[in-house]
Amino acid sequence: MSTTIPAAPPQKVAEAGKTTRFRLTDRARKERNLGWMLAGPAFFVMVAVTGYPILNALWLSMFDYRLTDPAGRDFIGLGNYLTILTDGLFWRQFGVTSLITVVTVSVELVLGFGLAMVMHRALYLRTALRTAILVPYGIITVVSAYAWAYAFSNTYGFVNGIFGLGEFDWFGGTWSALAAVCVAEIWKTTPFMSLLLLAGLAQIPDDYLEAAKVDGATAWQRVKRVILPNMKAAIMVALLFRTLDAFRVFDTVFIMTAGSQNTETLSFLAYRQTISRVMVGLGSAVSVILAILVVLIAVMFVKVFKTDLSQQRGDRK
After folding, report:
1. Is residue 34 part of a domain?
2. Cβ-proximal residues to 120 (8 Å cutoff; 6+ apart), any chain
3. Most Cβ neighbours (<10 Å): which of 15, 90, 168, 249?
4. Mean pLDDT of 157-185
5. CB contact at 8 A, 221 and 255
6. Is residue 6 part of a domain?
C-alpha cells in the first residue's frame, strides 16, 4: 500500500511552450517588504559590526604574523593556506570535526523527532513536558561539559558505575574520549532539534493523518508517507542549523578533553594557533577556511534538500 499525501502545492502560472514559473503572491510581497523595513536596520548594523572582523581576519591570514613580533609582519599571500592544507594535522582534525558532526547530528535527528512526536501528541501536562525536555538546552554549554566530564570520570563519575566498567578511563583513548564528547553534545542540543521539528509537526493538517488512517495506513506508514514528506522544510532547517553549530564545536572539547588524545577540532586548532602559539596569521587562515567550509555545508544542504521555503508556505504562485 502506498499512501502519500504531499504538502499543498503552490499555484503555478504556465504559458504555452514555456517552462512553468512561480511568482510571489501579493501577500508574500507585502510581507517581504515589511520584513525588510523591520529587520533591515538590524541587518545592516550586524553586517557593519561583523564585516570588519571578517575582512580583518582575511587580511591577517595573508601575513606571517606573530603577536610576539609585531614589527616582523611579512606578507606571504596564500602561504598560510598552503601550510595548513598540506599539513596532515589539519586533515586529521577535519576528520575529527566531521565525525563529531555526523554522529551527533544523526543521533539528535532521531531522538529529536521522537521527542517532538511525544510533545506534539501529549494530552496532559503538555507545558510541563515541553519545559522538562528543553531544560538541557537552557544550561550553559561550559556547565554541561563540566558535568559530563565529572560523570565520565574514572574515579568519581557515575557512568562507570551504571555500566559496571570499574575504573575505565574514558579520556585515556581517542575513541572513548570522542564518545564522551558526543554524548555531552547530544544531551545538550537534542532539545533544540526537537523544538524545530515540533514546529514542523504543527504545520501538518490533521486531515492528512485522518485520511491515511481511513485508507488503512499503519503508524509507520503514516510517518513515512505523510509526516516526513510534509516536514521536509522543517527537517532541512533543523539539520542545517545543527550541522553548522556542530561543525564549529569548541567549548565541549576544550572542557572535557582539552584536545588531548587526538580530539582536537578545527575550532580548537584555530584557538591553539592564535591564542596558545600567538601565530595570528596562521590562526586567521584556519578561521577563514572554517568559515568557507561552513558556507559550503549550508549550500550543500540547500541543494540536496531542494526545498523552497516560500513555496512550502504558499507564498509563490
Report:
1. yes
2. 198, 201, 202
3. 249
4. 91
5. no
6. no
Q: 68 in a domain, yes or no?
A: yes
Report the SS3 class of residue 289: helix
Q: Domain span at residue 139?
A: 26-312
Q: For residue range 61-89, what is the model confidence (pLDDT) as tens digits?
A: 999 988 888 777 888 989 999 999 999 98
pLDDT digit string, tens, across residues 237-257? 899 999 999 999 999 999 999
Cα separation, 199 vs 234, whole angstroms = 7
Which residue in this structure is represented by grid cell 501577500? 27
Q: How far apart are the first and last CA of the chain?
A: 32
What pLDDT is recorded for position 10? 47
- Residue carrying C-alpha cell 561543525: 247
CATH number at residue 136: 1.10.3720.10
Hey, which residues does 75 pair with through a beta bridge? 63
The SS3 call for residue 243 is: helix
> What DSSP string runs through 261-276?
TTT--HHHHHHIIIII
- What is the per-residue pLDDT for 4? 47
- Residue 111's pLDDT band (cuts 50, 70, 90): very high
pLDDT confidence of residue 15: 47
Q: pTM for the complete prediction? A: 0.81
> Residue with C-alpha cell 602561504?
79
As a whole number of angstroms, the distance between CA 6 and CA 20 comes to: 19
Reduced to 3 states (helix: H, G, I; strand: E, B; else coil), residue 188 is helix
Nearest Cα to Cα of residue 186 among 237, 118, 110: 110
Q: Is residue 216 part of a domain?
A: yes
Give me the number of domains the chain comprises: 1
Bridge partners (DSSP) of residue 24 are 316
Give the span between the Cα atoms of 172 and 43, in whole angstroms. Answer: 46
Q: Which of 155, 277, 251, 220 lies closest to 1 in space, CA to CA?
A: 220
